[in-house]
Amino acid sequence: MSETSYSTLGFSDRSLEAALDVIADTGFVGVEILGQAPHLDEPLQGNALKEFRGRLADRGFNSWTVHAPAKRTVPGAPDEDWRQESVAKLQRYVRFSGALGSRGLIVHPVPNPIFVSDTQVGPLHELMHDALRRSLDELVPVAAEVGTCILLENLPYHCDYPLLSMRELRPLVDEYPAEQVALILDTGHAWTIGNDPVAEIHFAGTRLQGTHLQDVDAATPNDDHWVPTHGGLDWDAIRGALAEIDYTGNWTFETVQGRHGESPAELARMTRRVATVWGR
Ligand SMILES: [Zn+2]
Fold it and tell me: Which domains does the chain possess?
């Protein structure tokens, strides 16, 4: 069942516990936990994990997802040492996601070009495809063991890298079991690199198990992470497309910036009002 959820990324100005308090107070029944500083830069284990799960339930949350560390932690890293480092770190987050009972672990498949020195696009294509497959081959058995799903996200980079869209990720995801590998659509990332979120939702189809709902400027999108309806995306069409594919994953709002200097708490409240109008 779909539930509305809010990402702690919107509260990067405070601790994870303080972020969870505001998100719960704002009325969201779901939350996405950012797996990097200033929130969970180390996955919790043992008793600390158990207690953390208890605190999520105590705040009234019904569901949660975990965003794996992004930046240099990418399974499609074109360099083998870099890829292995990423897989080792991701394995720990896969275990954490399973133990926490999360609805999915969000992973950025390929690196931001700022981290890549080799600008030869041809070889990078093959290297990244190959690296992502080998990484999933290693991560999927762990995900199956702990009962969690890896959600691969579309990214907003202006470059010729492969695997930045649902259209390109879907065939690769189809090679793996649906319970362990699925897709998450970031609406603003799609538009920023010229992809229509509606078309992307249809490309993802039954494999879509997560969303990052955020708005961007229609004409000059820049991964703005505005409150949905404050930018130029066609939200009626996006909601219609999600209904058409019978989407059941969470409606996760990833609002980070305001257009007029709103505080993080104001942005969460504005987003909550949109979610309520949408009936969620
Ligand atoms: Zn996102």
Answer: 4-277 (3.20.20.150)
